[in-house]
Amino acid sequence: RFLKNTEVVGHELIYLKETDSTNNDVKRLAKAGGMDGTVVIAGCQTAGRGRQGRSFQSPQGKGLYLSLLLRPRLPAERLIPVTALAGVAVCRAVKRVCGAQLGLKWPNDPVLGGKKICGILTELTAGLDVVLGIGINVAQTSVDFSPAVAEVATSLQMELGRAVSKAELAAALIEELDQMYAALRAGDLAGDLAFYRKVCVNLGRTVRLLSDGVWETADAVDIDEEFGLVVRDARGRMRTVRSGEVSVRGL
Ligand code: BTN
Known about the structure:
Elements: E1 13-19, H1 22-31, E2 39-45, E3 63-70, H2 82-98, E4 103-105, E5 109-112, E6 115-116, E7 118-124, E8 130-137, H3 147-152, H4 156-160, H5 166-186, H6 190-199, E9 206-211, E10 214-223, E11 229-233, E12 238-241, E13 247-249
Parallel strand pairs: 1-2
Antiparallel strand pairs: 2-3, 3-8, 4-5, 5-6, 7-8, 9-10, 9-13, 10-11, 11-12
The protein binds biotin (BTN).
Biotin (BTN) is lined by residues 21-23, 45, 48-51, 54, 56, 65-67, 119-121, 133-135.
């Protein structure tokens, strides 16, 4: 009802009132030969997953929880930007529906008011299918987050002071993801890279990097063509850090 024409994403759309994790659903679909661009949306998740083995709290009616099955038949190195591109798609969708400009905390956390508004979990299957999971905090209030999570997370409703339609947001997000997927397949990422650089909250600031248990401080200077973070370290040397290699603090 809300969807305009999309090329691939959302032609198959599955809504589940409750599930363990939409990423798990999409993984099962990938094994079963599911269609490229299939979207699974859930009302709530009983075992929502975050990165680094963390859980993602997914209470009924509060967030938009969806996962996407992409079968691009591209070599692994062409899939590196997917998570960053999904962050760009989330920013564009939120801007369209709410007018608010989110920032992106490298590598892929959409933020608003200095706190995280959305989580993105990308998983690759052995056959190089992409399982792209996105959870946007829409209607949570402070009581919906545990105290530790409330320190770092917020919702659109809390930041904007008004209700946001999950259906409209889902439709806009599916359209943005469809365009992002076309760009990925075409290898035409210049527009998304420019957008990313514009909204990235780390650039021009100091970041703290954690790699192999060691913290170091560096200046974030750019995003490279593969959406890696280019930093100048304490000794003045430039280097690029890749997502997965390091954890970044400093907002
Ligand atoms: C993170 O910030 O650590 C990533 C969180 C990803 C949450 C989404 S919600 C939809 C999809 N299903 C999951 O189990 N996780 C992702």
